[in-house]
Structures are given as C-alpha cells and as structure tokens.
Amino acid sequence: MLRGTRGAALFGARLAATWSSNAVLYAVVAVLAVGFVLGAILLFVNWWSRRRAGTDESQVLERSATQPTQDPGSGRVKDKYSWLDEDEWKTDYGQLAKNYEAEKFLARPDSGGLMMKQTGGAGRSEKLLHYDVDKLTGWTALFHLSGTALHNTEIWLTCVGYWVLAVVFVLGARAIPFSEYHVHVQQGIERLTALTNFLAALIGFMLGLFVSILIARWWNCRIDCLENLFAALSDAQLFLAVRLGSSKEDVAIKETCLRYSLLVHRLVYYEIRSVDEAEFLTYLDNVGLAEADEIALLRARPAKASTVLVWIGKLYTALGHARKWQPVDMLHLDEQLSRARNAIGQVSAYTDTQLPFQYVHLLTFVVISCNLILCLDVGFSLGTALKPGSALDPVFVALEIFRVFVQPLAYHAFLRLGSELSNPFGFDFNDFPMYAHHCVLRREGLSISKAGEQLPKALGEK
C-alpha cells in the first residue's frame, strides 16, 4: 500500500513537472500569438479610422481647437496651431476667387485631441499640422499608433518574421537533447548574447548618426528651402504693396504677382513628385492658378517653377520702367528672385541627393544580422530554460520575450522613420502640408496687398 502511494506520488510529481514546463512553453507561444492578433486588429482599426477621416471633407477646423488652452496642472498656456480661418476675413479675392473656392483650408483634430490634421480628399493628402506636446510626451504615446513610425504594416510583417523564427528556435532548442551530444549549450548562449550586445552597441552609434542627419536634413528643407522661398515671394509682394495703389491696374498687377507666387510654390512640389503632367496642368487650370496660355508655355518644359520666376521678373522689370523706379529698387527685386531660385535649387539638391548607398545598406545589413542573432540567442535561451526538469525563472522568460519583441521593432521603426524624413515633400502623413502652406501664403500675400489699399486715417490718402 505504501509502495503504491509512493509510486503514485512520484508519478504525479513527474507529471506536474512536465506539465509545468509544457504550460510555460504553451503560455509563451500563446502570448506571442495573442500579440500578433492584437497587433493586426489594432492596425486594422487605425487604418479604418484613417480611411473614414480621409474621405470626410465636411469636417473643418474647429474653433475650439485653435484657441489657446490653459494646462490646469502647470497653469501655462499650451501651444496651438497658428491658423486664422479665412472665412472670418470677408474680402475680395479678385483673380484668386476661383482658387479660394476650389482650395479652401480644411483641417480637423483627431478623436483624442492629440493632433491637428490637414483633411484629405480632392487631391489632398492627410497631413500632420500640429500636435499636443504635453499629450504626446505622456501616457498617450504608449497607446497611439496613427501617424507614427509604428503605424506601418511593413514594419510589423518584418517583425512577425523575426518572432516566428524565435518560436522555431525555442521549439528546436527544447526538443534537442544537448546533453546526450555533449554540447555545452550554455557557453554558446553566452557567446551569442555577447555578440548581440556588441552589434547592438554598433547599431546604436550608426542608427543615431543616421537619424540625426536625416532630422537635420528635414529641418533644413523647411528653413533653408521652403522658408526662404516663402520669404522671397512675400518680400516681393510687400514691395509692390508699398509702391502700388488701389487702382484697378495696380490691384490686377498685385493679384497676378501673388498668383504667380502661389504657382511657383505648387510647381516646386510637382517637380519632386511623380505626377502626370497633363493631369497636373489641367488641375492648375481648374483651381485658377494658371491660365490657358500659361499652361501651354509650361507644358513639356523643364524647370517649371523657375520659369514662372522669370515671368515675375519680367512683370517687375516692365512695371519698373513704366513707373521709373530707382535702380536700387530693381536690384532689391532681383535679389528676391535670386533668393527664391536658390531655395528651389536647394530643394532639388536635397531630394535628388540621398544618403550614401553603402552607409544605408551597411546599416540595414547590420540591423537584420543583429536581429537574426537575437532570435537565435533568445530561442536557445528560452528553449533550454523550458526543458522538462529545468528550474523555471519567470522573470528571465518575460525579459527574453520583451527583448525579442521590442528590439527588432525599434530598429526597423527608426529605419522607416529615416526613409520618410529623407524626402519631406511627398505624400506621407508627416511630410510638409503643401495645401496648408499654400493657403497661408495666399492669405498672407493677399493681406499684404490689401494693407496698401486700405490705410488708416493717420497715414491719409495720397
């Protein structure tokens, strides 16, 4: 009786040990599987929400979203997107009336109030305009994927490959009886871990340099290229507003100059993007940015943006001769045109000159190699730790799962971020909002022109 009881107890202990090991293994696989499913569901929900938001053109910028709000915790005034609704300014748009009706500024906040977006649709891409720094640097960042580097299906599919490979290594390491073949698997695991740490340090240096260079390129594209272009075009408009009056002829000249300025800005983006020329020129006619004879001159012509700059220069030159402007005034206008042309050239230089191919390839090669070795390291570590009869360390298991889940995801997310930052003039969500800039340039230029026509009493009429 006693012998039977001991036998049953010994059998139960062995069964419990085996079941415990199997249960942990099944739990690891289940956790990875649930992560895959939840990730797929989350990506689908974000894609569906973006699709619905992009097709809803009736949503406009809410006034409450543009008003400065006070943080109750710190008492400071929070940042806001500096946009004034054009509908509040009732004025005569003249030659730009058609363009104003066809290309009104459309923006909306997202459901959580984290971001202000340029509304997509009608030839526009959904773009980020402004985000709430306080929310983004808080817990919201952990649960928000839309518009981030992690909101990319290719990244997740790439990482799924790593995770599946890690599970295969776990099952293989658990099934192979290393002790029977006199294989010192623990020493091999330690060497794999050392190699992984070495490659991770190398990647940290290379990836940090990669991202910092691309962020600097992105900022230079905004300041040295777009801002210089905006400043040159606005300064030329300011020059005309000061010297021309409110007669029909003068108003028509200022409106033509502003329309050409907007056309230059639009053509800068066209020359960078892969857009069909015939469709694009037809669109310019439909939105009132170019007339039929101007479209005929631009068709099949290279350097379209610079061509329109020449038109602006010819307009100034003819006007200067007719109004007998001083040579110094003409020199100032020539400098602004040269400044605008240099800005256009810098845009082409940045977008046509990528980072060295060898550097990007080497960085990607090291990242993939490190991730593969990481999968092998984690797979053998968990496989040997989950063998029947092995002492179970739940903390070690959890950390290994976290390592193989986060590290490949972070590496490929930074690589993807770099590829988007390399050319901010495209259609990606975080690229420069072309239509928003167009509306700002149109509003500012028109306001400057009207300022010279509607003077306060202190200045009087001349």
List keywords for this structure.
462 residues; 3 strands; mainly alpha
Write a brief structural summary.
The chain is mostly helical and 462 residues long. It contains 15 helices and three strands.
Summarize the helices and strands and which ones pair or pack:
Elements (H helix, E strand, L loop, with lengths): L1 H54 L7 H4 L30 H6 L4 E3 L5 E4 L8 E5 L1 H4 L3 H4 L9 H23 L9 H59 L4 H25 L4 H10 L5 H7 L5 H20 L3 H26 L4 H29 L8 H28 L12 H18 L11
Antiparallel strand pairs: 1-2, 2-3
Task: Explain this structure.
- The chain is mostly helical and 462 residues long.
- Among the domains are: 59-144, no CATH class; 218-353, no CATH class.
- Helix content is 69%, strand content 3%.
- Residues 7-21 and 52-68 have low confidence and may be disordered.
Annotation field: number of helices? 15
Global shape: elongated
Strand order of the largest sheet: 1-2-3
Radius of gyration: 31 Å
Quote the distance from N terminus to C terminus. Answer: 121 Å
Mean pLDDT: 80
Strand percentage: under 5%
The class by helix and strand makeup works out as: mainly alpha
The oligomeric state is single chain
Uncertain ranges? 7-21, 52-68
Main beta sheet strand tally, sense and closure: 3 strands, antiparallel
Order of helices and strands: HHHEEEHHHHHHHHHHHH
Counting DSSP E segments of at least 2 residues, the number of strands comes to 3
Q: What is the helical fraction, as a range of percent?
A: 55-70%
